[in-house]
Design brief:
The structure holds three protein chains of three kinds. Chain A is mainly α. Chain A has helices at about 5-30, 40-65, 70-85, 95-115, 120-140, 150-160, 165-185, 185-195, 200-205, 210-235, 245-255, 270-285, 295-330; strands at about 160, 165. Chain A is built from 13 helices and two strands. Chain B has helices at about 5-25, 30-55, 65-80, 85-110, 115-135, 150-175, 180-190, 190-195, 200-225, 235-245, 260-280, 285-305; strands at about 140, 230. The radius of gyration of chain B is 20 Å and the shape is globular. Chains A and B meet through helix 5, helix 11 and helix 13 of A and helix 5, helix 10 and helix 12 of B.
Chain lengths: ~325, ~300, ~350
């Protein structure tokens, strides 16, 4: 089987990550208390759905060479507007939810407009919207308003089970499957990969770069809105601080999963593995007696270390390959 | 010159307009002593913004400065509280910063890892490690440390003076010294720089170490302003510094920007929050206005790009 | 490739579920109270780690756990994510702890998780900030939000002679307990001290340095300001330092909710007039004692008093175990405390 070097490298990163995940599962299964029970595993899934959704939709943005720091703030804004539409607007929650998805699309659209139409760097635009969206959420609620007492039919989304599996896990799996197809089997995905790999080249090749990037950002907004809905259903309350810090967690999962921050390389299954590895680590540490009381800090610390190791692991073979090629290119003395 | 530095001058224009508005609606804003106190409190952040500008110009980024700032503050505090001489406490903080910077630099320049991810990892690791170690407990400082033993006014002028000196020195180095020009070159096109004889990876490493040292210096400048160290300090510092640099015209794509712009961008963003308090705007508008200002500054750039056909 | 990945993951999960060690499946039967002879597991959660206030609660909690010979798990949110407390509670449910003691960041949000824990037979004790009463067994009440709000407002009025402008520095606009306190401060002001006027409310994000900067700005923006009320504990020393540096020590009063150690120097030199708090170490101690008694079945609904280990008897009103009144730390008594 003659694999291109790129495919070979991709395979290697994800296989290693899979091995890490399995090692974590085995270690915590043995050393942790009540780790492998169905209840706990269900919890791991439930707690990682929002960050998982954001990571899934951040991945195409990063693949296309961009970034979106505003997704966490979009979650907060959408949560608050969802609550407001339901409580003050009197809409049934189903309608409010659909409207919220539209709001998410609009938020993503703002990013898309500034990035594609005005050609502004995504880092700065999303840094601005990171403040702006959170600020709008705070302004709408005056910081203090919280929307609660949602009907049980809505809360079921976050706390109930369908066929033994947590309800929001089904939503997550649907989105994961859709993203996988989108990135790996459609022209959209191929465009994103091409744009990330060589933006100017993609432009000359006739790809509608602006439209593709805009689509990625709007998708990010819509899925952030969806995450806001599952978050509110799980937590039972919608406040302006919903989703704080989620953007960095999502980026961490995406990069851990093998997507290059420069664009052009990455996979959805890698991202899923990244999300899983971080979620299992966080949960597992809270069950090992020795680390129970410092689980929060340790999981952050170890995630940082894991990230560097994952990157360094990918960089080392590249380094060797480059040394070899440099030696080959070196001029031969006459 | 106006055309070449259009961005910086337009931000200066916005800053002057804001100050003019304040002069009309809230003239108390310019009362000398409170103004000096506010500038002194903001001075450490200016130092960090200068460093970040340098990092961004070299086409990298560093989001770990906030956590590193906290670590250096705690190091300074612990060394001082252990009754060690003052210069040692200051030197330890700067050294701790340089070491942190060197770690980032080694991973970015040495292993060629993307700087946003490396500094994301160091940010998280440093913050959580510090939390484990210090548990959020304040550190009481010995009396001689506040304002380095000077009377308060003298101390305030000293801190502001240090910030301006750092700004001027870096501006001079970036503009006139070869090593400064090398940073621009590496940020514009690392490969071309390499062919021209510059060593991009060495420059990148030095940039990160310097960033770390500046962070340590900023931490010291902050520690001497009060008799206790809060280990939670420095939160969001990286975003404030990056925003200041970018609003001031430093291009994220590297190779462009100058420290005069950084000063203007920094002053603009730093005066928004107090301005809102003086005018009496409710606090829940803070973040929305900050975000809007950042976007406006950047949009103006984008519109110009579109006009120039880029 | 995708297929083999999916296969791997399924195998891994199946492997784990099969070899789940230690303890019954907590999904099936409720774990009830602790059987005699087995070491109690008490799970203790602050509002956030890395906050001096809760570190001092932990001191007391650790001491009580040692006295009782119980296992104490101390975990809490390190990030500002408000849903984090729920996640930790849910993890503890499956871990199989005997009793949970929690200071609730978000009253409505956390009650969903706590109710689920109660259904599984885990006892719940809240401290510092309550959840919904239906979601927990007892609340160790060091001071009601109303009591705190009244104490702060009364003290402010006392120091200002009944009239004057004051400003409040809070942690963040969304912090639930601060919102509660502000409500009661305002209610007390309207009812008893209408001559006092609140001119500004600024957040300090729980950072001492930011509080110092905000206080400096407030002092400049409101030249007639008479008092700074700091309801966020890092803000009390921050504001005091700002007042000192502005040369207004004594002219602008500083009060707040804070820790004695952090405020000792300002109380002594007169910059800060009063710091209101309660004995946090005792709060942690009493909470763990109550938690253990609850788990062992010794503390039952309807009790009117509770013996909290070496601290002695405490009154119970309804389902609130009362620690006592808010305590005023002043220049005179500050040296007796170390936390």
């Amino acid at each position: 089987m003659d694999l291109s070097p790129k495919t070979r490298m991709l395979l290697r990163h994800e296989t290693v990550l899979l091995a890490v995940l399995l090692a974590e599962l085995i270690f915590f299964g043995v050393a942790g208390r009540n780790f492998g029970t169905p209840d706990n595993l269900a919890n791991i899934v439930r707690h990682s759905v929002e960050i998982g959704l954001l990571a899934l939709v951040m991945m195409p943005v990063v693949l296309a060479g961009g970034i979106d720091l505003s997704v966490g703030s979009t979650v907060g804004l959408c949560a608050v507007l969802f609550g407001k539409l339901w409580r003050d607007g009197g809409l049934p929650w189903e309608v409010a939810a659909v409207a919220t998805l539209g709001i998410g699309a609009t938020a993503g659209g703002v990013n898309a407009l500034l990035i594609t139409a005005l050609r502004l760097p995504p880092l700065i635009v999303t840094l601005g919207t990171y403040s702006l969206f959170r600020g709008l959420a705070e302004a709408i609620t005056h910081g203090t308003d919280a929307f609660t007492r949602f009907p049980p039919s809505f809360l079921f989304l976050g706390t109930g089970r369908i066929a033994g599996i947590p309800a929001q896990a089904w939503i997550f799996m649907l989105v994961a499957a859709a993203m996988w197809l989108l990135v790996h089997r459609t022209t959209f995905g191929r465009s994103w990969r091409a744009i990330g790999f060589a933006p100017e080249g993609a432009r000359y090749a006739g790809l509608p770069v602006g439209r593709r990037l805009a689509f990625a950002h709007m998708l990010a907004g819509i899925v952030a809105a969806l995450a806001a809905i599952t978050y509110t259903a799980r937590f039972g309350t919608a406040k302006a601080d919903a989703g704080t810090g989620y953007e960095l967690a999502a980026i961490t999962a995406v990069v851990l999963g093998g997507t290059s921050i420069f664009g052009g390389i990455g996979s959805v299954h890698g991202t899923l593995l990244g999300v899983a590895a971080i979620a299992v680590l966080g949960n597992g540490l809270s069950r090992v007696p020795a680390t129970m009381s410092s689980a929060g800090e340790l999981s952050g610390l170890l995630t940082g270390v894991l990230l560097v190791l994952a990157l360094a692991g990918g960089a080392v073979p590249k380094w060797f390959a480059e040394r070899r090629s440099r030696k080959a290119r070196a001029p031969v003395p006459p | 010159m106006l055309k070449r530095h259009f961005r910086e001058f337009s931000v200066l224009g916005v800053l002057l307009s804001v100050l003019a508005l304040l002069g009309v609606f809230a003239p108390d804003f310019f009362a000398p002593q409170p103004l000096l106190s506010r500038l002194t409190a903001a001075a450490p952040k200016l130092v960090v913004a200068c460093g970040i500008a340098m990092v961004i110009i070299s086409r990298q980024i560093d989001i770990s400065v906030g956590s590193l700032f906290a670590v250096c503050s705690v190091v300074c505090g612990l060394v001082a509280a252990a009754k060690m001489p003052l210069p040692l406490a200051i030197a330890s903080a700067i050294a701790a910063g340089a070491i942190g910077g060197a770690l980032n630099g080694a991973l970015v320049a040495g292993l060629r890892l993307p700087s946003i991810v490396v500094t994301l990892a160091t940010m998280v690791t440093l913050r959580e490690g510090l939390r484990l170690a210090q548990q959020g407990v304040f550190i009481d400082l010995p009396d001689g440390l506040q304002w380095i033993g000077l009377p308060m006014i003298g101390g305030q002028y000293l801190v502001c003076g240090i910030a301006l000196t750092v700004l001027a020195a870096m501006a001079a180095v970036m503009r006139h010294l070869a090593i400064g020009r090398a940073v621009y070159a590496v940020g514009s096109d690392a490969e071309a720089a390499r062919l021209a004889g510059i060593r991009p990876r060495l420059i990148t490493f030095v940039v990160f170490v310097l960033m770390g040292a500046l962070t340590g210096l900023a931490a010291v400048m902050n520690v001497v302003q009060s008799p206790q160290v809060d280990p939670n300090t420095g939160r969001m510092l990286e975003l404030e510094a990056i925003a200041a640099a970018v609003v001031g015209g430093v291009a994220v794509s590297g190779g462009r920007g100058n420290l005069g712009g950084v000063l203007v961008g920094f002053l603009l963003l730093a005066c928004i929050t107090p301005a809102l308090t003086y005018i009496g705007v409710k606090p829940y508008w803070d973040k929305a206005i900050q975000g809007a200002v950042i976007l406006l500054a950047v949009v103006a750039d984008g519109l110009r790009n579109r006009k120039n056909g880029r | 490739m995708f297929r083999s990945f999916a296969l791997f993951l399924c195998l891994g999960v199946a492997l784990l579920t099969g070899c789940s060690r230690s303890g019954p499946d907590t999904g099936a039967a409720p774990s009830g109270g602790a059987p005699a002879g087995k070491r109690l597991t008490i799970a203790f959660m602050p509002k956030s780690k890395g906050n001096g206030y809760f570190v001092s609660c932990k001191q007391g909690a650790d001491q009580a756990a040692k006295d009782l010979g119980a296992e104490l798990i101390f975990d809490g949110p390190v990030s500002p994510d408000p849903a984090k407390q729920n996640e930790i509670i849910e993890n503890w449910i499956t871990l199989g702890v005997d009793v949970i003691a929690v200071a609730c960041e978000n009253k409505d949000g956390i009650s969903t998780a706590l109710k689920r824990a109660k259904d599984k037979g885990i006892k719940i004790v809240t401290f510092d900030s309550d959840a919904e009463p239906a979601a927990r067994d007892f609340f160790v009440n060091q001071a009601t939000p109303e009591g705190i709000g009244n104490a702060l407002m009364d003290e402010a009025a006392r120091l200002c002679g009944g009239t004057g402008e004051f400003a409040i520095i809070t942690a963040s606009l969304t912090a639930q307990n601060m919102i509660e306190w502000q409500k009661f401060i305002e209610a007390r002001r309207m009812a008893k001290h209408p001559g006092m006027k609140m001119v500004a409310l600024r957040p300090c994000d729980d950072l001492k340095d930011k509080a110092q900067a905000e206080a400096t700005t407030l002092l400049g923006a409101y030249p007639d300001l008479k008092l700074l009320m700091n309801i966020c504990s890092p803000a009390v020393p921050g504001a005091a330092e700002a007042v000192k540096q502005a040369g207004k020590a004594g002219k602008v009063k500083v009060i707040g909710l804070g820790l004695p150690n952090e405020n000792r120097r300002y109380l002594k030199d007169g910059t800060t007039d009063t710091v209101i708090l309660w004995k946090t170490v005792d709060l942690g101690y009493l909470t763990v004692q109550a938690a253990a008694a609850l788990a062992k079945g010794e503390l039952k609904a309807g009790a009117t008093s509770f013996k909290g280990g070496k601290l002695g008897e405490f009154r119970i009103v309804g389902d609130n175990i009362l620690l006592g009144e808010p305590f005023k730390f002043t220049k005179e008594n500050i040296d007796q405390f170390d936390f």
